[in-house]
Amino acid sequence: MTSTPPASSLDPSVAARLKRGPDGLVPAIAQQYDTGEVLMLGWMDDEALHRTLTTGRCTYWSRSRREYWVKGDTSGHIQKVVSVALDCDADTVLVKVDQTGAACHTGDRTCFDADVLPLSAPQ
């Protein structure tokens, strides 16, 4: 489903580089800054990225609720932004954070703890 993203204050030079999906979103990976632990994947549009860059707190676009949410506003499990980078194709954002509490909505430290798949390929 294609939709026009809301107006944003994102720096135009950054906005011009972003490669968004048809829905106007880019995946945003949250990573613990000091351990490298991958915490979660969220979605950002231009405004969510602008808010993340200017407030020091991760702001995501909720695809199900169709609204912005700041990680930790209701749970207290905040993500304090340490750095933000685009990948080489400018189609994914990496946000290095200092995570307080659980990153996953299930209460797990990361969204990738609970369902580790077995490898059958030789190591």
* Low-confidence runs: 1-5
Largest sheet: 4 strands, mixed
Tell me the span between the first and last alpha carbons. Answer: 41 Å
Spatially, the strands of the biggest sheet line up as 2-1-6-5
The number of distinct helices, counting runs of at least 4 residues, comes to 2
Q: How large is the radius of gyration?
A: 15 Å
Shape descriptor reads globular
Strand content: 25-35%
Query: How would you state the average pLDDT, rounded?
Result: 92
Helix content estimate: 10-25%
The count of β-strands is: 6
- Structural class computed from helices and strand pairing: alpha+beta
How do the helices and strands follow one another from N- to C-terminus? HEEHEEEE
Give the helices and strands, then pairings.
Blueprint: H1 12-17, E1 26-32, E2 38-44, H2 46-55, E3 59-62, E4 67-70, E5 79-86, E6 93-99
Plain-language structure description:
- The protein is an alpha+beta fold.
- The protein has 2 helices and 6 strands.
- The chain has helices at 12-17, 46-55; strands at residues 26-32, 38-44, 59-62, 67-70, 79-86, 93-99.
- Strands 2-1-6-5 form a 4-stranded mixed β-sheet, covered by helices on one side. Strands 3-4 form a two-stranded antiparallel ribbon.
- The radius of gyration is 15 Å and the shape is globular.
- The relative contact order is 0.20.
- Mean pLDDT is 92; it is low at 1-5.
